[in-house]
Structures are given as structure tokens and as C-alpha cells.
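Handoff note, outgoing to incoming analyst
You'll be picking up this chain. Sequence as last confirmed:
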Amino acid sequence: MHTKITKHEILTQVKDLCVPAYGCTEIGSIGYSVAAAAKCVKDDIKNVKGIHINVSPYIFRNVMRVGVPNLGVCGIYKIAATAAAIADPARKLEMFSSVTKQQKELGQYLYDHSLVYVKIPVKCDPVYVQTIIETKQDRIEALIEGVHNNLSYVKVNNKTVYKGKKMKSLEVKNPEKLWINNLSVEEIIEFVDTCKTSDIDFLEKLFKMNVNISEYGKKHLIENSYTASYIKSCKKRTIYDRMIIDTAAAIDARMSGANPPVMSSCGSGDHGLTASIPLFTYHKFAKTSRIKFLRSLLLSNLIVYKIKSNIGNLSCMCGSVIAAVTAVISAVAYQMNMNAKQLTSIMESCLHSFNCTMCDGAKLSCTQAICTAMLGGFNLINLAKVGYFTKPLDGIVAGDINITLRIFKKLSKENSRKFNLSLVNGMCKLNSGAYKKK
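Most recent structure output, in case you need it:
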């Protein structure tokens, strides 16, 4: 390897990238910020003058249409009001892992009395949730920034009462200098191949969360969901169909606000589900070895990180399709014992196929986009087996994955802000009925 980073440091980074989350990660971020501020309110929370939430367009788009665990509703106002009632920042992204009847009632009170105000600042980090709670005597401020679970600070009357450790955002100015991008895909595969079971055993323990929510989703099928509809349409189930059903069940459950937690990857629960569940299903039915499965999990998460560090933590591009599906398709091919040259070519073929997939917010139909991309990815694996790959210089495929990702980084950086502002504007108008026919 050409990098000075050690095996221990890489595995520690992977542990930091994979953290538990209840519901949509952005829901957790808002809940964490609000709860951190509410914890400092001395008086009864009912007597506050206002709970002001400033969220980036990226965060806003991802909380409009996803269910909140243990609430059965969606919407940023309900999220903020209930988090203020919970007021337990120790839960972090697991803010809604449980909600008592009293907390629901208090949250409803804050919501009904219009004490929550929301603004969408333009110039801020993609991961940005600022909460300002005003009481008769205090002004309390809490900020989540850079990374979904990074509480930067809590201030009371401009005096810092909590200061978090500095965590790097995936929105790095020079991603090519990041350690993951100093490693070629071939070097990443080589590193993965050298890991022993004892090195990566933690991945299986973390992964059980994602298996659990997949089983939950299949047991509690949502009517007219992608999972239920796909099962109806499948007459003869291949191993690919099983991989899609297992993944779809987990994402459908999560997007609808199911209670079971998930193991996220690079700040996204959907990334974590997409980049892992198909690998377990393939391992189970193809009977690959346990160490091969664990290595494929490690490879998948490293590829997600490599792609996300270029396109950005929250961008105009759909990370679940472009990063997570590309990663898991490559990792499935790895379980199939395809060589490094085939894997890098499959990655570029996926990026070529998925490059126009834009993100229009988190919602139940994310399942459809992810699973449709997976179907295409499985076809690319079949094509790779007979020697077909996307040729260099076709579109934005460079023939070198690092160069291709630099082009993706440029596309995301130049277009994300304008796209997301237009998207949020359109979503707000759509929800207000402005587009209804007269």
C-alpha cells in the first residue's frame, strides 16, 4: 500500500462509519440537536417562547416523507417537538428508540401551540442542524454539523457549556488526499484479503441489526409497498430475487418508521442496509465461507466510503444508488471470486449506469430506486462474466476509478447546491398545493 495508515486505523475508521440509527439518519440528527438544547432548559418546556430549527436543504428534503419510529407520522415539526419533549441527548441518533405517552403528549402540545419554527439557510454544511430555544431568561443553542452524530457545541447565552470533538465532514475540499482515495481499488481488495476473522468479526455483530429489520419488514408487509408488490410479481425466485426482497423489506420498514434500529454506513441507514443485506443473502444461499462474507462486508463499506468521500455526504446524487449499490454489487462479485480487474471494471460500469440518479429526498419509494439499480447491477455482473465492461472514455468513464470519481466529485460540487435549493422549493410548493390544477 502507498499509504501510511495502518490496518488498525483503517478498521477503526470503518467502526466510526458504521453506527446504529433509529429511523432516517436525518431524523436522528434533528432529534439529537433539539434534545441537546432542550436538556438545558431550566423552566417547563411548555413555557418556551420558541424552538427554532435551521436545517440545510439536504437535511430538510430527507425528513419530509419518512416515518418517525414510535410516532407513526412524518414531518420536521413533529420531530422537533417530540425531541424537545424527550430531551435526552445521550440517545444521539437513537432519539426515537422509545417514546412514552407523556412525551408524545408534551410533543403534541408544543406542536399544537406552534412553538416550532423552521428555516432553511442556504450557506451551510450539507449536514447542518442548528437549534435555538428561547425562554424568558435564556437563549440556548445546539449545533450538529459535518457528520450526522457530531454535536459541535451547546451554548447557553453564548457561553459554551459543551464542546464536541472535531469530526471531519465527508465534504472534504481535496478528497483525493483522503486516505481512502490514496488507496486504489486493487489495494483495498488486497487489504480486505489480508484481514483475519478476528480483525473483522465486529462486522457480523453489527450486521445483525440489518438482518433483524429485514425479517421484520417481511413479517409486517406494507400494503402496496415495493416488497409486497415484488413478491407478487416473482413467479420463480432466483438468488438475485431473494437478495432484492430481503433488501427491499428492510428499506420499506425503515422508511415507514418501523422501530428496529439499523446499522448505518457513512451517515445513512439506507446505505448500511443496501451495502450489507444482499451480501448476507448471497452468503446464505450460495454457501460461501464466513470469512469471505465478512471480507465482502468490509469491502462494501470501504467502497461506499470511497465513493461518498467524492460525491459528498449529502449531494444532488443519490448516495444509496451511486455509492451503496455500486459497492454491494462489487462486493457480491467479490464473493463470487471475481478478480480485482473485473471488480474495478464492474464499479465503473455501475457508475456509468447510475450517474444520472438524482436524490429527491428520503421516502418509501427509495426502495424502488435502490432495487431497480440492484437489478441493473446484477446484470452487469452477468455481463462481466462474459467479458463485457463499459469502455474507457465512454461518457465520464476514465478507465481509472480514481479519475472517474474525481469527475463525479466535480459534478456534485458544481451542481448540488443549486439542484437542492430548486428541489426543496418544488417540494414545498407541491406540499402546499401550489401545483394543483385550478
